[in-house]
Amino acid sequence: MTDLLKTGNTVPVATNAVPVADTGSFRREILSAIAEGWRLLLLAGLSQDADGTRLLAALADDGHGEIGLIATDVAGSYPALTPDCPAAHCFEREIHEAWAVRPEGHPWLKPVRFPPGGPAIGEADFFEVAGAETHEVAVGPVHAGIIEPGHFRFSCHGERILHLEIALGYQHRGIEAALCGGPGKRSVHLAETIAGDTSAGHATAYCQLVEALSATACSPRSLALRTVALELERIANHIGDLGALAGDVGFLPAAAYCGRLRGDVLNLTAAWCGSRLGRGWIRPGGIAREPRTEVLREVKQRLVDAERDMRNAVELLWKSSSVRARFENTGILTREAAADLGIVGPPARASGIDRDCRRDFPASAYRDGRPAIMVGESGDVFARAFQRWREIENSLAFLGRVLDQPGAGEPMTAVGPLAPNRLALSLVEGWRGEIVHLGLTDAAGRFARYKIVDPSFRNWFGLAIAMRGQAISDFPMCNKSFNLSYCGHDL
Amino acid sequence: MFKALLARARQGHRTANYPAQDPSLPPLFRGRPVLDPEKCLDGCARCIDACPTDALRMAAAGPELDLGRCIFCGECAKACPANAISFTQDWRLAASERAGLLATGDHKVPVEAASREMRRLVGRSLRLRQVSAGGCNGCEVEVNALGNVVFDSSRFGIEFVASPRHADGILVTGPVTLNMREATLQTYDAVGEPRLVIAAGACAISGGLFRDHPEVGDGAEDLLPVDLYIPGCPPHPYTILDGLLRLLGRL
Asked: What's the pLDDT tens digit per position in A357-372?
C-alpha cells in the first residue's frame, strides 16, 4: 500500500501531498486496500475546474487507527467503484448529483438531495416490482409523527415487503456550502444544527477539525469535559429510543418511563450549559465555560439516580415475552450486508462488526480513556435495542470516572488562524455512529471545501436492506431501532 | 405483570405541577433577554458583530434584539463590555405578532389570545399536525417532549395528530426548505378551516441560521398566516406550552 498517503484522525496533511493517481490506479489502490481490510471512510469531490473534477478517497484501517488518502482527476465520467465496493454507493450518487460526474456502471444512480437547479424533489425513477398481488405503499414526506420528512416507498407482496426505497432530500439546507469561507461566527452554530439531536457530536467534529488545522492544543480537562457532553448525548438518545421502541410495540410502561428519563438526561445537559441539547457547550479551543464544581457533583449524583430508574424501566423490556417476541428475529441486518454497505455505529455493532471511533480513532478527547466497547451478534431489532442499553451502561460507568477526575487545565485555549492549503479529517463516534468532517483550506486559511458525513448517510440503506422480507407493520419498530437523521443525510 | 406494577410504583408520579407552579429551570438557561439602554456604550456594536444570526440592531432607544432571529446562544451578552444584555430565566417568549418579538429594554413578550370563536372551537381541545420543514430535529424533539409524562400537554387537551384532516392547525419547524415548500402548503390546505399556524423555533420564524441560503425559504411567514411565533433554538418545551396555552386564553 505504498500509494496511499497515511495520516490519522485530526492529523492535517498538505493538500498537494495527497497522491493523485490516474483513475485506473485510483480504483485499484482502493479495491486492493479494501481486500486487505481497509474500509471506505469517504469518497467525495474536492474541487472542479475546466479540466475536470478532483475526487478524494479516504480509507480507514480500524486496527491501526490509520487513514489513507488518494485522489484522482476525472472528466465527465469514470468507472464506478460501487459494483466492486458497495459502501461507495451513496458517495458516488452524491458525486453524480453535486459535481455532474457520472460513475459509469453504478446500479442506483438516483438523486440524493435534490439541490436547486436539478430535478424537482421526489422526481426519480423508483424501483418497481410487478406481478399478481404486488402493490406499493408510499409514505411521506410528511409522516404521522413529530418527525422529519422523507419519502418511503414500499414494494409489497401482501403484507410482506419485497423492497423499501428511501428517497430523501427534503431537509436540504446547504450547510456544507455555508461552512465554506469560514471559520466565521456562524460556523460552530451551523455545526450544532447539522443534526440537532447530535449537537455535541457534530460540534466536536467541527471543533477538532479547526483545532487540528490551527495546531491548537486544548487542555486535558476541556477535552475530558467534552466527552461528558458526547456521552450524555448518547445516553439521552439511546434511552429515548428504547422508550420509543417500547411505544412502537405498544408496551406503554417502558415507553412512559424512558421518555421521562430521556428528559432527565437532557436536563442534566441544560444544568451544565443552559441548553437541553448541549448547544454552547463545545467550542473551538475547548469548552465554552468551566462548570461550577457543584454542577459536576450534581450531574454525577443525578446520573446514579437515573441509572437506577433506567435499569428498572429497561429490564421490563427484556423480561416481557410480548416485547421480545416482536424484537427478536425482526429486521435482521446480516454481518455481511453491514460490512459491505459500510454501516457504522450501534447498527453495525449489533450485527457483530467491532467498530467504534472512540477506540479505533481516538482523537484528543478519548485518548486517555473511553467507555468499554461491546458488540452484539444477531443484527435484529433486539440486538440493536440491547446494544443501546449496553452502551448506556458503559457510558454511565465511564462518566463516573471522568466526573471524578476530569484532569487539569483551562477550559479554553486561544485558537489561531488555520494553516493554508491543508486537508484534515475529524472522526467522532456520535451516538448514531461515526461522524466524519473533512476540511480543506485555501491559500488564505479559509475553508475552501467542507464535507460532512453523518452516520445516517451510510446507514439509511442498511435500514432498506433490513426491511426486505419483513411485515410492513414492523416498519416503525425497525425504523426506530436505527433512528436515523434526515437532516444529517440531507445537510 | 407483577414486575410492571412494581416498576410503576418505583417510577412514581412525574408530571410537573405546571402552570400552578412555575417551572424550575437551570441557572444557565437563556430565556427572555433584558437589554439595558442606560448601560449601552454608544456605537460600540460589539454585540452586533458577535451575533451569528444578525438578530441585533442599534435602534434609537438602544439595542434591539429580534427574538425571531435569536438562537439564544448568549454571544452578545458575552461580547458586551458593559453588561447591557442579559438573558433571564423567563421561559415565556411566544408572541402572536411578529413585531412583538422585537425586544428592547425589559421587554415582556405579548400574546393575544386567539379570537373568541377560535377559542370556543379549540380552547379545550387543540389538535395540531406538526410539519418539519428543514428542522434539524432540535425543535422536533422538544415538541415531542410535550407528549411525555412530565409536560403532558394532553392534560390541557393539546395533542399532536397523524393527519392534517384531524387537526385544527399546523405547527411548523425549520426554515421551510425549498424541497418542503410544496408539502408544507399541501398539509396546510388539508387542514379544515378555521385553522391555526404556529411557527416554532428561529428557523420557522425567520430562517434562523439558514436565512438567505439559496436552498431554503426564510421561515413560514412568507408562506402562511402565522398565528403564534415561538422563539428559541430550540424553544424549551415550557416555552412552547406557554405559548399554546396563552393562545388558547388558558393562562
From this structure: 999 999 877 888 899 9
Cα separation, B87 vs B35, in Å, equals: 9
Average pLDDT, chain A: 94
Residue ranges covered by each domain of chain B: 33-91, 116-247
Cβ(B175)–Cβ(B217) below 8 Å? yes
Interface check for B10 against chain A (CB to CB < 8 A): the answer is: yes
How far out from the chain centre does Cα B204 lie? Answer: 9
Q: Per-residue pLDDT tens for A318-354?
A: 999 999 999 999 999 999 999 999 999 999 999 999 9
- Which CATH number characterizes residue A261's domain? 1.10.645.10
Contact B157, B126 (CB under 8 A): yes
Chain B residues inside the 8 Å CB shell of A271: 26, 28
A170, A177, A273: residue with CB nearest B177: A170
The C-alpha angle A168, A202, A287, rounded to 5 degrees, equals: 160
Neighbours of B72 (CB within 10 A): 25
CATH of domain B116-247: 3.40.50.12280
- A368 and A447, same domain (yes or no): yes
Q: Give pLDDT tens digits for A246-281.
A: 999 999 999 999 999 999 999 999 999 999 999 999
Contacts of A169 in chain B (CB under 8 A): 179
Mutation target to probe the B interface, by most B beta carbons within 10 A, among A97, A114, A152, A173 is A173
Query: How far from chain centre, in Å, is Cα B42?
Result: 32
Q: What is the pLDDT of residue A484?
A: 97
Asked if B89 has any chain A CB less than 8 Å from its own CB, the reply is no
Cβ pair B146, B235 in contact under 8 A: no
pTM recorded for the entire structure:
0.96
Please enumerate in sequence order all residues whose Cβ is within 8 A of that of A303, keeping only pairs 6 or more positions apart, or say none: A268, A396, A399, A400, A403
Q: B187 and B110 in contact (C-beta within 8 Å)?
A: no
DSSP A41-100: EEEEEEEEETTEEEEEEEEEETTTTEEEEEEEEESSEEE-STTT-GGGHHHHHHHHHHH-
* Pair A221, A100 in one domain: no
Q: Please state, as a whole number, how many other Cβ atoms lie within 10 Å of the Cβ of residue B13.
A: 5
Give CA separation, A165 vs A443, A461, A478, in Å: 43, 9, 15
Phi-psi sector, B74: left (phi>0), alpha (psi -120 to 50), beta: left
Q: Under 8 Å CB-to-CB from B225, ≥6 apart: which residues?
A: B197
- CA atoms of B215 and A117, how far apart (whole Å): 10
Residue of A nearest to B137 (CA): A196
Q: Residue B224: what are its φ and ψ, rounded to 5°?
A: -140, 155
